[in-house]
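Input record, target 12 of the design panel.
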């Protein structure tokens, strides 16, 4: 019986010692991989519905009067290209965002190659605060909700006025 209890305690200690604190897990490079914003997602969905249906209920004369064209397939094609281009720009902006958290509480932030430096800290179990160290915004603070933080994935929720965005990052090189 003592052997079983001792073994259980050793396994428990081993498992606990393998866990890393949030402070340790966040260190290193994090690359943006996904962006969600309910308002923006709704806008893109409504835009797609519009593109899919524009001019489909009218005859050529009505379409000419309403849209200035009778070839609605060409109009839909142009609108679709603009729609897809805008979504791709948004996704590329996220994928070109890199946070590099360092032990000295400095985070280097790269947005499309532009660099910024902030000081970071956890405010509580569910909040990450970044304070600008340079530029016109020096001293301003941004608080983000930590949706999840694991060894390989960080998901942050940014709240701005009446809307929010959720960005997921994958761990890069340390």
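The sequence produced for target 12 reads:
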């Amino acid at each position: 019986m003592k052997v079983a209890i001792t073994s259980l305690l050793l396994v428990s200690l081993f498992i606990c010692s393998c866990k890393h604190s949030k402070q340790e897990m966040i260190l290193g490079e994090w690359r943006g991989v996904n962006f969600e914003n309910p308002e923006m997602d709704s806008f893109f969905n409504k835009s797609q519905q519009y593109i899919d249906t524009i001019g489909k209920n009218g005859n050529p004369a009505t379409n000419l009067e309403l849209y200035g064209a009778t070839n609605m397939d060409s109009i839909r094609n142009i609108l679709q290209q603009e729609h897809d281009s805008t979504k791709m720009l948004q996704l590329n902006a996220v994928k070109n965002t890199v946070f590099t958290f360092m032990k000295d509480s400095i985070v280097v932030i790269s947005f499309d190659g532009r660099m910024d430096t902030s000081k970071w800290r956890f405010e509580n179990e569910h909040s990450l605060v970044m304070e600008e160290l340079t530029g016109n915004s020096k001293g301003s603070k941004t608080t983000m909700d930590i949706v999840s933080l694991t060894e390989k994935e960080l998901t942050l929720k940014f709240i701005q006025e009446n809307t929010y965005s959720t960005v997921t990052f994958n761990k890069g090189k340390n």
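The longest helix spans residues 72-95.
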